[in-house]
């Protein structure tokens, strides 16, 4: 939940008191034109209560709100604490007073105090957040399968049995499979038991879209016999034929291999009384796009940025991640919101980091201290090899967007020939970053 304002203000920015949670939710619902039910309201209240909370007070009136969930995000070769920004709202009567600027300044202070070198958000208006240093760091594809005929694939599906399980059993059964996939892609979030229940599966029906559009409850299909770790799983909901054709909506699909993914997609495309499979959020390099024998049957219906990332502490962010190649470059970094990040720095990645993108599939080490990877980020007076803004660095950080794209767009400058190519090679990851969640 995010909206806009600008300029300067005399509003008091302080911790949102727990007693003001309901007032804060009403403010947010006013700004975003929402009318949630009691269960959704209770869910939002718990989210806001348990996260970072910033209120903007105009006298006795609550005029602005910013919240942030405490999450842990995968980055190449590691995991880092991240503030997932949400509920950003300013009353329409208080726009253009600098309230959003002031709340974001306070958010950076809270992130530093809470040890969170990263912040992220899913903007409702993407034009707003670039000026605060956020850059689009992961992308998603919407995919639709014509399921009126069997799904044609170029390789054989995994032959292990498929079985439906009680969604209530899914968190305990599937968490090891999910955790095993985490290191393969940057931009993902670790989950606890509560998040599995409320965030991933919505077992209590508290989401804003729960039950809308005629879709039924969550179904969970797993690949593998009882007693063994599943080779993959999918969460989906169905809508039978009525006003329109029957649809399978895929909310999440994880697989240990291409044959495992082929088995799950084949199953989803074979469900009786449905003729379309829709997945609204899939990685841009989803193997299904290459497995499909007929690309007219498997179509990309949309492509858009998903997670927007902010490097709150650039030094910690850069020295904590792994690198695909050694590099020694001077970067001239602009950051108007956080001057401590700005300046001329030498980025050096040591031989210990040069493992290559294909080797980074083992467990991420979330306890590794910053700087222990052999990477350094030190101030220098040497001439820069590259000049760029922290926004562009954030977009490149997870390996999703090559820096050369921003150079071609005139948003970054290469001073030393070949410097951008070398940095892109170091930033490369085996799989594109992906964030399946939007909260």
UniProtKB/TrEMBL annotation:
Q: Provide the active-site residues from the annotation.
A: 129
Give the highest taxon in the source lineage: Bacteria
Presence of the UniProt keyword NADP in the record: no
- InterPro entries on file: Acetyltransf_17 (IPR041380), Acetyltransferase_Eis (IPR051554), Acyl_CoA_acyltransferase (IPR016181), Eis_dom (IPR025559), GNAT_dom (IPR000182), NAcTrfase_Eis (IPR022902), SCP2_sterol-bd_dom_sf (IPR036527)
Q: Which GO terms describe its molecular function?
A: acyltransferase activity
The ranges of region (Disordered) come to 348-383
Q: Which residues form the N-acetyltransferase domain?
A: 11-152
* Stored Gene3D superfamilies: 3.40.630.30, SCP2 sterol-binding domain (3.30.1050.10)
Q: What class of enzyme is it?
A: transferase
Q: Which residues form the signal peptide?
A: none
PANTHER family registered for this protein in UniProt: N-ACETYLTRANSFERASE EIS (PTHR37817:SF1)
Its family remark reads: Belongs to the acetyltransferase Eis family.
The protein in question is named: GNAT family N-acetyltransferase
Which species is the source of this protein?
Streptomyces decoyicus
């Amino acid at each position: 939940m995010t909206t806009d304002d600008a300029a300067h203000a005399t509003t008091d920015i302080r911790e949102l008191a727990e007693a003001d949670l309901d007032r804060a939710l009403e403010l947010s619902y006013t700004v975003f034109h929402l009318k949630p039910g009691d269960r959704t309201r209770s869910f939002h209240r718990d989210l806001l209560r348990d996260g970072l909370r910033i209120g903007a007070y105009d006298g006795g009136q609550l005029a602005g709100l910013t919240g942030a969930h405490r999450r842990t995000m995968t980055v190449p070769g590691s995991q880092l604490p991240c503030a997932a920004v949400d509920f950003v709202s300013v009353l329409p009567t208080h726009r253009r007073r600098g309230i959003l600027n002031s709340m974001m300044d306070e958010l950076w202070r809270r992130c530093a105090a809470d040890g969170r070198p990263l912040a992220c958000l899913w903007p409702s208006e993407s034009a707003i957040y670039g000026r605060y240093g956020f850059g689009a760091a992961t992308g998603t594809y919407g995919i639709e399968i014509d399921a009126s005929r069997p799904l044609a694939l170029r390789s054989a599906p995994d032959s292990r049995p498929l079985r439906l399980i009680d969604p209530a059993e899914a968190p305990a059964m599937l968490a090891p499979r999910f955790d095993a996939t985490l290191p393969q892609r940057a931009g993902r979030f670790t989950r606890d038991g509560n998040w599995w229940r409320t965030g991933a599966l919505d077992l209590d029906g508290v989401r804003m879209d729960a039950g809308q559009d005629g879709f039924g409850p969550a179904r969970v299909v797993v690949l593998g016999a009882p007693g063994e770790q599943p080779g993959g799983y999918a969460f989906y909901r169905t809508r039978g034929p009525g006003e329109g054709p029957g649809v399978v909506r895929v909310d999440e699909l994880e697989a240990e291999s291409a044959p495992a993914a082929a088995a799950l997609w084949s199953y989803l495309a074979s469900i009786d009384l449905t003729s379309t499979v829709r997945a609204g959020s899939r990685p841009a390099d989803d193997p299904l796009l290459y497995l499909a024998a007929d690309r007219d049957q498997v179509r990309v219906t949309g492509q858009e940025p998903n997670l927007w990332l902010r490097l709150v502490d650039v030094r910690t962010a850069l020295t904590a991640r792994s690198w695909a190649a050694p590099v020694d470059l001077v970067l001239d970094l602009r950051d108007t919101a956080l001057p401590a990040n700005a300046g001329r720095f030498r980025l050096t990645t040591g031989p210990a980091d040069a493992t290559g993108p294909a080797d980074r599939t083992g467990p991420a080490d979330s306890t590794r201290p910053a700087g222990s990877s052999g990477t350094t980020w030190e101030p220098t007076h040497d001439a820069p090899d590259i000049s760029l803004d922290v926004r562009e660095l954030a977009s490149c950080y997870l390996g999703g967007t090559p820096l050369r794209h921003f150079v071609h767009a005139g948003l970054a400058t290469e001073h030393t020939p070949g410097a951008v190519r070398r940095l892109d090679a170091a930033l490369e990851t085996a799989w594109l970053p992906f964030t399946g969640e939007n909260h």
